[in-house]
């Protein structure tokens, strides 16, 4: 992982969790070959562990195969909520939780 390739390390992305792709707004350019070109995805793997899906891959420079960042995305179902997390030096850090019910009980207005 290379902090010379990104504008900001682990930017806060709120609830935007990427299962694939790259956050190019944070890509400064390759610190190895000094070119700003496409970012490729290599070594993508998906694992399931105790009901949690974990997707990992490397962001790699198209020109010199320099590893820019390691991306980790997780998905799980906890109680009645789908939980998502993302951690990546390039794409940032984020968490999200969505109800599996038609109406999210956390969004309901109190009756009194």
Automatic annotation (TrEMBL):
Highest taxon above the source species: Eukaryota
MF (Gene Ontology): zinc ion binding
This protein's record includes keyword Zinc: yes
InterPro entries: Churchill_sf (IPR038543), Transcrpt_activator_Churchill (IPR009508)
One Pfam short name: Churchill
GO biological processes: fibroblast growth factor receptor signaling pathway; positive regulation of DNA-templated transcription
Keywords from the UniProt entry: Activator, Developmental protein, Metal-binding, Transcription, Transcription regulation, Zinc
Similarity annotation: Belongs to the Churchill family.
Protein name: Protein Churchill
Species name: Oryzias javanicus (Javanese ricefish)
High-level lineage: Eukaryota, Metazoa, Chordata, Craniata, Vertebrata
């Amino acid at each position: 992982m290379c902090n010379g390739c990104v504008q900001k390390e682990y930017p806060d992305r709120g609830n935007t969790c990427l299962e694939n792709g790259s956050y190019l707004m944070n890509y400064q350019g390759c610190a190895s070959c000094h070119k700003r070109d496409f970012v490729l995805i290599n070594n993508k793997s998906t694992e399931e562990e105790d009901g949690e899906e974990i997707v990992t891959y490397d962001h790699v420079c198209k020109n010199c195969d320099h590893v820019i960042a390691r991306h980790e995305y997780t998905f799980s179902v906890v109680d009645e909520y789908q939980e998502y997390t993302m951690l990546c030096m390039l794409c940032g850090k984020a968490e999200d939780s969505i109800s599996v019910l038609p109406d999210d009980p956390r969004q309901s207005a109190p009756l009194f």
